[in-house]
Inverse folding.
């Protein structure tokens, strides 16, 4: 390992050769016949776009940069926060508060200064997607929401680019390659997204930090295989990973002849409004639900509790969340509320709360229908309580 | 026929947190009916109001998608595994 080269490296033959530095850097690839000089040059010439630099994008970016993918585009508009660090290993504690793109560019540039990093500080939209994707050979989907996943899929099909897909939830992951010539696309697998609210996001459902690491690495491996043109790509197969059982399973994925994007008679021939397609009417949709129920602000609640008012605090979160922090409320998880409603006294004044105010709004709505008249939703939940009343209250 | 139904992580909370459920059924439809009879809360996650399987929930017999077999009428053999695979979107958060 510590051998010093005393002789100059042979002069590069042909145009885009590797420098002496690069030969050393990629030596463990170069000595593999499956990669070799030809493969490493393919990696150097490759242009890969990563959509998202979060849980999946973090390991993906690190491995693609390390492997020597010559041009790496990253689309992200987010800022690093403390809750990211549990799994987004591309960032460090000193990056908290910085733009993800800036932090990722610095980290990847330090890992491999030989590659070009293109930073797109924007949300991927129907307006900009085709222009951004057009320049790249392969797109890797590391997003966290259905509208962007359908957008990436459709844009890749329209442009004829492979889309290396990965998705995670708690202990479970999925991976595949969509948009490969002759292969299925994401819409062949799932023609429509679930309605909003039926499937919890990672922010609500949580995710074990290693899981996006594993799925992101699978995406990185498939991307590199596509570039090298070697092995059997994950096309027409849906890989399922169950981390708890530590099992990989594989399901057959067929191209749907009726698919609206990649089928025989496509009806989607240009990018559409994906928020509308996914039933989301803009960012503020959840807030509209909470506005419909009577609300009390954290400051008002604090004043009334201090005054000694007879208020019954109802916590509708899960028991494991109660252990993180609580307001000494009576705990009935939202899902158990219908069965345990008899524990509540409808003659008392009740303040329901959760983490952010969303689940408790549902609880207030449910209890109002059940005949409770004197009931409030704590606006913004325990997060707002921490911001407005008690900064020592942990936020999660 | 004894068959095993694999419950995906997002739906386990509606199936007494079980990873899989063993049932007696002759077709996929019968297996899903038996499953939703046992776990009533699963129903709205698998079926829409008009009683059709939701389009973001795929069902497989072993590794084959029932949409390309006989859908819910697909017959099952003893020891078959039925997988429920809903779409999940997480990744960047």
């Amino acid at each position: 390992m510590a051998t010093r080269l005393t002789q100059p490296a042979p002069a590069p033959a042909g145009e885009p050769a590797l420098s002496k530095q690069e030969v050393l850097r990629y030596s463990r690839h170069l000595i593999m016949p499956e990669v070799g000089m030809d493969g490493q040059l393919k990696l150097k010439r490759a242009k890969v776009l990563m959509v998202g630099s979060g849980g999946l994008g973090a390991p993906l970016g690190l491995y693609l940069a390390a492997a020597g993918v010559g041009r790496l585009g990253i689309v992200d508009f987010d800022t690093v926060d403390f809750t990211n660090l549990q799994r987004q290993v591309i960032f460090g504690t000193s990056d908290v508060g910085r733009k993800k793109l800036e932090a990722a560019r610095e980290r990847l540039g330090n890992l491999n200064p030989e590659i070009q990093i293109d930073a797109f500080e924007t949300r991927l939209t129907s307006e900009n997607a085709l222009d951004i994707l057009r320049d790249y050979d392969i797109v890797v989907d590391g997003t966290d929401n259905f509208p962007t996943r359908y957008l990436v899929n459709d844009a890749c099909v329209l442009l004829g680019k492979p889309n290396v897909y990965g998705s995670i939830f708690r202990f479970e992951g999925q991976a595949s390659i969509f948009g490969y010539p002759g292969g299925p696309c994401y819409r062949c697998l799932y023609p429509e997204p679930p309605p909003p609210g039926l499937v919890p996001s990672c922010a609500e459902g949580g995710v074990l930090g290693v899981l996006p690491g594993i799925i992101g690495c699978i995406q990185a491996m498939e991307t590199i295989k596509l570039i090298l043109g070697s092995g059997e790509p994950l096309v027409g197969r849906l890989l399922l990973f169950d981390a708890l059982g530590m099992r990989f399973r594989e399901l057959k994925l067929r191209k749907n002849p009726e698919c609206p994007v990649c089928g025989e008679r496509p009806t989607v021939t240009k990018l559409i409004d994906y928020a509308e397609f996914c039933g989301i009417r803009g960012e503020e949709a959840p807030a509209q639900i909470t506005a419909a129920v009577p609300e009390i602000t954290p400051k008002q609640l604090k004043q009334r509790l201090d005054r000694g008012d007879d208020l019954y605090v109802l916590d509708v979160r899960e028991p494991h969340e109660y252990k993180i922090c609580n307001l000494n409320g009576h705990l009935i998880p939202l899902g158990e509320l219908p069965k345990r409603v008899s524990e509540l006294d409808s003659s008392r004044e009740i303040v329901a709360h959760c983490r952010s105010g969303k689940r408790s709004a549902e609880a207030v709505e449910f209890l109002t229908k059940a005949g409770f008249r004197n009931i409030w939703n704590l606006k913004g939940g325990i997060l707002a309580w921490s911001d407005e009343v008690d900064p020592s209250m942990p936020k999660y | 026929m004894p068959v095993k139904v694999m419950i995906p992580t997002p739906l386990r909370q509606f199936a007494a947190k079980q990873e899989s459920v063993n049932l007696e059924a002759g077709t996929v439809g019968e297996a899903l009916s038996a499953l939703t009879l046992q776990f009533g809360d699963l129903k709205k996650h698998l079926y829409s109001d008009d009683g059709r399987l939701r389009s973001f929930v795929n069902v497989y017999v072993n590794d084959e998608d029932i949409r390309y077999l006989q859908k819910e009428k697909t017959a099952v053999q003893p020891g078959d595994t039925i997988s429920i695979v809903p779409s999940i979107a997480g990744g960047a958060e």
Observations:
- The mean pLDDT of chain B is 92.
